[in-house]
Amino acid sequence: MWKIGNIEIEGRVVLAPMAGITSSGYRLFNKRFGVAVFVSEMVSDMGLIYDNKQTETYVKFDKLFPTGLQLFGSSPETMKKAAIIAQKANKNIDFFDVNMGCPVPKVTNSGAGSSLMKNPKLCGDIIRSIKSATSLPVTAKIRLGWDNSSINYLEVIKELEKAGVDAIAIHARTRKELYLGEPHFDLLKDLRSKMSVPLIVSGNIFTLDDAIRAINITGADAVMVARGGMGNPTLIKQIDSYYRHGEKIEPASLKEQIDYCLELADYLIEEKGESLAMRVYRSIAPKFFNGFANCKKYKTRLVTELVSRKSLVGILEEIKKENNIN
Ligand SMILES: Cc1cc2nc3c(=O)[nH]c(=O)nc-3n(C[C@H](O)[C@H](O)[C@H](O)COP(=O)(O)O)c2cc1C
């Protein structure tokens, strides 16, 4: 058991924030596989302050315990204001998470996301400011640093701890590395023993062995499942079962993958409506069939032909037929 502030956490899988992916429907679908902590897609402080309608849709979600709302912004004052607005708008927010890792120029050019790491003191001030306005726990998600020559995660962690942060997630890459190449868990050896708050590690968690390795090296309390869980919810179950019961679970069968693929689609349709859900699903649905040799041509069709639930069911039926699944 570990804690985010006063929230007791059982389990070691945190469902990563992923803009455009980890919406409330996506989070709900993944719950039963053993997610211990949920984090929302990132939400702009300015979007909340200026009452942007799209931003509001990210903030409204049903109870799924515990869920963190991730905020991005660059100033302690606006981040505090945004947290107050969000908390009023949705009582189901259990904690706030601050994005200090996003590498996208639109975000970093405004001084937010990973560019915050260039100023460790400011990172601390943002946490302090949000904490002064809410009694909810506040966590941060950082990277190793801006680039190879400015790796400063230890300094940032110390500032965050001084400011009273309740947990820290670290993506073991620099801003410059974006999402490419091997994450550098080797740099984070025994990191947890140098910290006073819980540690969550992120970066290429695609298999149970990846999770075990990341936890063993760093001593982390939990791992974040991000791209590795897209189209493979069983990964969450594998990690959760291993740490809860010492059990190693088999990967999902093709039949199970087909069922999960339709099930997640239905959660997204319920959340977003059919047309938008299917547009989003073109980047998720094909991933359910990674590693199934017979499914190559269907993966392409799931990208190009997905316009409605009916079109999805049609393709899934063809996959079943070709693979003698009924
Ligand atoms: C499409 C996409 C969107 C992401 N959006 C966010 C985000 O909104 N906030 C955040 O902190 N990290 C975001 N991330 C980073 C992930 O949470 C995670 O740290 C990163 O993908 C590394 O893990 P992985 O290599 O296992 O995918 C995003 C990643 C991807 C691929």
CATH homologous superfamily name of the largest domain?
A: Aldolase class I
Question: How helix-rich are the residues, as a percent range?
Answer: 40-55%
Spatial gap, N to C terminus: 42 Å
Which small-molecule ligands are present, each listed once?
A: flavin mononucleotide
Class of secondary structure makeup: alpha/beta
What is the third-level CATH name, the topology of the largest domain? TIM Barrel
Shape: globular
How many beta-strand segments?
Answer: 10
Number of domains: 2
**Poorly predicted tracts of residues:** none
Structural summary, described in words:
- The protein has helices spanning 24-31, 45-49, 53-59, 76-89, 105-108, 120-133, 153-162, 208-218, 234-245, 254-272, 274-281, 296-304, 309-322, and strands at 2-4, 7-9, 13-15, 37-44, 67-72, 95-100, 138-143, 167-171, 199-202, 222-225.
- It has 326 residues and is of the alpha/beta class.
- The protein folds into two domains: 2-245, TIM Barrel (Alpha-Beta Barrel); 254-322.
- The strands form two sheets. An eight-stranded parallel beta barrel has the order 3-4-5-6-7-8-9-10, surrounded by seven helices. Strands 1-2 form a two-stranded antiparallel sheet.
- Helix 4 (76-89) packs parallel to helix 6 and helix 10 (254-272) packs antiparallel against helix 13.
- It is globular.
- The mean pLDDT is 97.
- Bound molecules: flavin mononucleotide.
- Flavin mononucleotide binds next to strand 4.
